[in-house]
Write the structure tokens for this entry.
Amino acid sequence: MSGWLAIAGMGPGAAQLITPEVTEALAEATDLIGYATYVARVPARADLSRHASDNREELDRARLALRLAAKGKRVVVVSSGDPGVFAMAAAVFEAVEAGDPSWRDLDIRVLPGISAMFAAAARIGAPLGHDFCAINLSNNLKPWDLIERRLRLAAQADFVIALYNPASKARPHQLGQAFELLRKLKAAETPVLFVRAAGTAEAEVVTTTLGAADPSRADMRTLVIVGASTTRQVGRWIYTPRSERGAPS
Ligand code: SAH
């Protein structure tokens, strides 16, 4: 039987938010690869080899997956949320680009998942209802200067901004620095949302404003959404209207 590699999104956490396509691939897999937390979400099976690893070893994980698929295994690489959003899919293609030329002909499929920003937005209304962008605040893979530049331009363009990886133990100050920069460019009353463990039973939402936002509220399981100038509250909901007719250009 010929091998394949599926790079699957496990969604934000709840079992109901895993797509049937991903469930099917997991049921057919011989090998499961990923960060230990996501591998642990897949029920054990006698005929399923599990290769759990540390979060930082993305390229090693990708190469292992490709080698196994080339040997005829049915491999699923799991990511949280969507595998194409700050996750394993790009790491696999980077490994393909730098690796054995025959890897380019492998049966590789990317199976989408519900990204944290969608689960977080759904929880509070429709904050991503109009143009938005997603920025990864971690400077593990890029310089902080570049992150600041993107934040500045996103604020100038009046995008709603979804901030992934807002904080970790190793990077406690970056979200505070990001808020400081955004406060110079956006109104203090701009809605800011902290959504922790979105799409799970432990989900928590804090609605605040840019002026009052406390960066220490965010941890590694938090997605932060900073509104555009049009983002507003109606009852307990936050939304960004779809029409910007009449807005200054
Ligand atoms: N591929 C993932 C993102 C991986 S980066 C996706 O599409 O969602 C990891 C970051 O995603 C975390 O630091 C956090 O900012 C965010 N995140 C992942 N799961 C989350 C959840 N259930 N609730 C809130 N944020 C989450």
